Each structure stands twice: as C-alpha cells, then as structure tokens.
C-alpha cells in the first residue's frame, strides 16, 4: 500500500502487539494502527472495513513437518475448540466488513473441520459468497468430504499440502459481503428487548472507539499520499411503529 490508506492490525496477545509495533517502526510503516482486542466482537469497536484478513488461530496441523509434537499434543477436543473459535472470529470479521468488501480467511491447517466446515457455517449464517482467490497454485477446496457436504462454491478456495507443494499445509478462502441483512435483524431484536446493557461496559467501549477514531484521523492527516474521503454514513435501522387496528365491536 506504500503507506497509503489506514490499516488496523489487531492481536489479542499484548506481547505480540509490542513485537508488531517494533517491526512496523523498523520497516518505516506509518499508516498502521495496532489494537489489542479480542477478535470476537471486534465489530463493536470498529467496522465498515474495505478488506479484512483473518489469519485464524488453528491446531497447526499444516506445520507438522516443522513441529513433530503436534502429532501427539493435539486431540479431538482441540480441533473442536479451534473450530468454534474460528466460526466466531469469522462471523465477527464479516460483521466488521462493509457491504461489497472482501475478506480472506486462512489457516495453517488442512483439517476440514477448521477450513471448509467453518466457511460453510458462515455462508449459512451471513449474506456472503465465496469468490475466486486468483491464486494460480494449490488444489481446489472440498465441496464434499466423507459424509459431509459443503457449499459448491468452496471449490474456489485453495488448499496447499506439504507433500505436494513442498511447503507448510495451508488453506485460504476469499469471500465477498453481499448485505447487512443479519445485522439488521439483530438491531431489531436489540431494540425490542427489555434487557438494558450495562452502563459501565458501554461507556468503556465508547471511550475506546472514540480514541481509535481520533488516532485514525491523525494517521490520515499525517499521510500525504492518502486521498481524502468521508466514510459512508448509514442511518441506523429503526423499527417502524406497529399498525393501528380498530377494536372489534360485537353485533
């Protein structure tokens, strides 16, 4: 990007964010804001991104050639936990994306439970579609595996195998967001619920969001190559009042 635009680099691990900051300074990167949040629920902090790259935590089954301990240290429970976390992260990543934006989901694993099964789950719960990655190498994703049947478009994904491509096992899939239909339904549900959110957590999130937006503004002003633009302001969805009905009269 040559220091144009604004990049948000998020990691749930604080020590890794410190290392990331050091690398950014060493490389002369000035258009990146490092954040330390849980990726699940990141859309409540910042959203409407043009592109999102989700390098999801996984079992690391694709790097067994470099770490033999994975063969004995990972169990079925680890795969299930990783799969559930990956689903939650990908759902949040989609919710943080603007309509028409693209998201790339990747893992260093070749397990179906962490790859095609995760993407297929999100396809059934969000208005997104799988698009071609544009990669000239790798094998197509799986539309069926044993008794599992996944979305036909998952063949656009790419799988890399150590014994075939002479590199770590890897999975990558590219998706495009079609609409905010699911988010609108959630907004309606929250508007009619009687449960009130905690004031403390709301205030904390609002303060953090304000600080991030302020930092984003400074980054855009300091970058001479960034084109000035204003974000698309969308009005919040409000629930229309219920239609009035005339009382029934007995004859």
Task: Write a concise synopsis of the structure shown.
With 251 residues, the chain is of the alpha+beta class.
Q: Helical content, roughly? A: 25-40%
Count the helices. How many? 7
Which class do the helix and strand fractions yield? alpha+beta
Beta-strand residue fraction = 15-25%
Which ranges are low-confidence, i.e. pLDDT below 50, for 5 or more consecutive residues?
228-239
| Largest sheet entry | 6 strands, mixed
Overall pLDDT metric = 84
- How many runs of DSSP E, i.e. beta strands? 10
- End-to-end span in angstroms? 75 Å
GO molecular function: RNA binding; rRNA (cytosine-C5-)-methyltransferase activity
Region (Disordered): 188-251
Pfam families: Methyltr_RsmB-F
Keywords: Methyltransferase, RNA-binding, S-adenosyl-L-methionine, Transferase
Describe this structure as you would to a colleague.
The protein is α+β, with helices and mostly antiparallel strands. The strands form 3 sheets. Strands 3, 4, 5, 6, 9 and 10 form a 6-stranded mixed β-sheet that branches. Strand 1, helix 1 and strand 2 form a beta-alpha-beta unit. About 5% of the residues have low confidence. It holds the Pfam family Methyltr_RsmB-F. Belongs to the class I-like SAM-binding methyltransferase superfamily. RsmB/NOP family. InterPro entries: MeTrfase_RsmB-F_NOP2_cat (IPR049560), MeTrfase_RsmB-F_NOP2_dom (IPR001678), RCMT (IPR023267), RsmB/NOL1/NOP2-like_CS (IPR018314), SAM-dependent_MTases_sf (IPR029063). GO terms for molecular function: RNA binding; rRNA (cytosine-C5-)-methyltransferase activity.
